[in-house]
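Thread amino acids onto this structure.
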């Protein structure tokens, strides 16, 4: 019976997310062409935050997932920041965006072109990652306009526990915009939707996600040296995290201690 519940919860979650994103994508197309950018971007970001919050709340309501990301609420109204989390799974961006509506986001070009997410991402002014010079200029402009920026220093989901080799993009953007880098730790007891996890593969439920804030670094002076420091900091902070397991351990079905929603 529990396995049947897990399959039902899996399909419920996927169906709900698909419905929310596709509906908003269809609405975003005319809005993108009709609204001036100064109205479209805040509306697009607020709508995405609301949609993701509904989706994650529904997962918690049916008992499929336990979330603790209240720490993110402390980043609201703190001025522009480069928000730099680790990246264990596909839900990471959804969790961060669900708590921080005034947030620019660097996204893979394939996601911006996706039928479910693309139109909404363009309306929200999210930034494509396929043209590096343009990506950096847009990111710096967002920060100088007082908005925060979400970027995953690893560049992709984690495949080398506890983090991949970090790329220098976050440090370069923060240095040019002269804003701090706020590290964020996403911990989970499951490998669900990690790199290589099939979309329709059933995980053991409930899954636990916990987000905590790490150190806030001053704007870096030397991007390359800082990136090495940042990677070492993530490794030290996550290696012994109580709810963060290596991918092979998580996939074997072992779970950490549960958190309350």
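Threaded sequence (261 positions):
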């Amino acid at each position: 019976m529990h396995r049947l519940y897990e399959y039902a919860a899996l399909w419920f979650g996927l169906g709900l997310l698909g419905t929310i994103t596709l509906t908003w994508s269809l609405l975003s197309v005319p809005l993108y062409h009709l609204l001036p950018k100064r109205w479209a971007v805040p509306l697009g970001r607020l709508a995405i935050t609301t949609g993701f919050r509904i989706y994650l709340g529904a997962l918690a309501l049916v008992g499929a997932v336990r979330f603790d990301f209240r720490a993110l609420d402390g980043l609201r109204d703190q001025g522009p920041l480069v928000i730099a989390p680790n990246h264990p799974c596909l839900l990471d961006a959804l969790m961060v965006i669900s708590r921080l509506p005034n947030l620019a986001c660097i996204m893979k070009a394939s996601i911006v072109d996706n039928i479910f997410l693309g139109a909404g991402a363009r309306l929200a002014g999210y930034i494509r990652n396929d043209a590096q010079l343009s990506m950096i200029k847009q990111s710096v402009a967002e920060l100088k306009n007082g908005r925060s920026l979400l970027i995953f220093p690893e560049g992709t989901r984690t495949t080398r526990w506890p983090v991949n080799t970090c790329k220098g993009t976050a440090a370069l953007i923060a240095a040019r915009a002269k804003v701090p880098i706020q590290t964020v730790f996403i911990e989970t007891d499951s490998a669900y939707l990690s790199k290589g996890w099939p979309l329709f593969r059933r995980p053991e439920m409930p899954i636990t996600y916990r987000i905590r804030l790490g150190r806030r670094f001053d704007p870096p002076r030397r991007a390359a040296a800082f990136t090495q420091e940042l990677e070492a900091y993530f490794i030290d902070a996550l290696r012994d995290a109580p709810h963060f397991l290596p991918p092979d351990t998580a996939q074997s079905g072992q779970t950490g201690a549960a958190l309350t929603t």
